Amino acid sequence: MEKATALLGSLFGRGVAEQDAAKVKELFVYPIKGCRGISVPFACVSPTGFRWDRQWLIVNSKCRAYTQRVEPKLALVQVSLPMEAFTEDFKPKSDTFMTVKAPDMYPLQIPLFQDTFQRIDNISVWEWCGSAFDQGENAANWFSTYLGKPSRLVRFDTESEVRPIDENYARGYKTMFSDEYPFLMISQSSLDTLNKHLTESLPINRFRPNIFVEGCEPFAEDLWQTLRINGLTFHGVKLCARCKVPTLNQETGIAEKEPTETLSKFRSGEILFSGKKARGKVFFGQNLICEESLNPKACLGKVIRVGDMVHVVKKINSSAEAAT
Q: Of 26, 305, 74, which Cα lies nearest the Cα of 184?
């Protein structure tokens, strides 16, 4: 038995086949890209990430995506879904809605059943361009009023569109309207370490993770190449280079200097990788893909829950070896 364990350890990691490394503390889903997330007790895994995650997008008059980078007021937009929408067997009906709220705005309801919506072509998110379902004049007027400029709300067309992930990091995987990858993991200890360097502690919502874990060493998630959560296999594919968004106070929408200024002192590309690699970037969190997402039948009914253990199967020796 000991020989078998040692053999598995040599194949999958450093010394042991599988280690209990952390526990899921919180799970977050962000239905509308750029708007506030929803903390949920469990989340279903789909071929593109958590169900409902970044399925909707706000675009300008040229059909280009709005994010908090250019529209920080999106940080104040609250989104809610009925809790049954997160269950494994939920099917939208004509009377189920996503509710959107913002300061000085009336509540907006968006049907989860999308049978009556029209397609809009040339919707663009970063390098991707495709069609999406327009969510109607009521939603368009609501976001146009709130942002003070022509806007429309669209929904990803899961039936006919595919947005692939960079094949240099994860060949064959896909996502909807997320920046790059379907999952982002951050640990409580990493946040705690950052906050020790700050005069004012920051909450986790500054960093918009999907999976927030606890019980591991600071920045241990940098090293996790293969991990398992509730029978699902995840792969860490790329450290998360942080943009302007973590500097935006999610309660006010106002930009601040931190945490970028402090992260640059111990989480910059120059420091982590000792050279020109990723120069000028700061890193916080690990981007993940889920192996079962390659096969829709394999991820059908698969759920991650708060309290689930994170088992590490394979890891690297240091952050310097991580992909960026």
A: 26
Residue 219: domain span: 2-321
Residue partners of 4: CB distance under 8 A and separation at least 6: none
Phi first, then psi, for residue 168 (nearest 5°) are -70, -20
Task: Band the pLDDT of 6: cuts 50, 70, 90.
Answer: very low
**DSSP letter (8 states) at residue 244:** S
What total number of domains does the chain contain?
1
Q: 3-state SS of the chain: helix, strand, coil percent to 5?
A: 25, 35, 45
User: What residue spans of the chain are helical by DSSP H?
Assistant: 2-12, 137-147, 188-196, 260-266, 269-273, 296-299
Both tokens of 52, joined, read: 């409902």
Residue 210 has pLDDT above 50, yes or no: yes
Q: 112 is written with which tokens?
A: 């989860």
Q: State pLDDT tens for residues 8-34.
A: 343 334 444 577 899 999 999 999 999
71 contacts: CB under 8 Å, gap ≥ 6? 34, 58, 147
